[in-house]
Amino acid sequence: MDKLKKIYSKNKEVIDYLFWGVVAFVLYMFIYWIFTSKMGMREVVATFFDNVIVIIFTFITNKLFVFRSKAGSFKGLVREFVSFVAARIFTFILNELIVWVGCDLLGYNTQSYHLPFINDGMIVQFIAQAVVIITNYVLSKLVVFRKKKTPVADDVPNTPEGTASDGTVSDGTQVTGEDKAEA
Q: How far apart are CA 136 and CA 138, in angstroms?
């Protein structure tokens, strides 16, 4: 059990992303199935509406449970949401392209079956979702929820070397006004 805890704590972000990614994938596929099989929507139209719903769901789960982002302000929250939606629009276009090529150009659509109980349109969606999930993780980690670098003491301008702007030295001691003048 300790080994599992150690593995989880070492890879927490990736494991959490995969968990919530699986939840989003199941939600995505279920909504897609409802839209195409029960409501008769075309694959590309169903994919559009499906993406809108799942994008909102994944923003919330990625922000709160995966990357544990603390925007710090309303402006920061808006920046995260806009960049998240922009990244998802990119992967949405990628998803639509894969579905269009697979279903419309190659003919692997909801009307054809090569596996029992799973139409070919679903197989195309599985492939599209694998590509999209990987791309979304990379964009979320490197662009949307990237960790802000905090300046180290040596990078703070107008302070004595090794002294932070609040007057503390890298060992945590306080620098007095006389010490600052001498430095």
A: 5
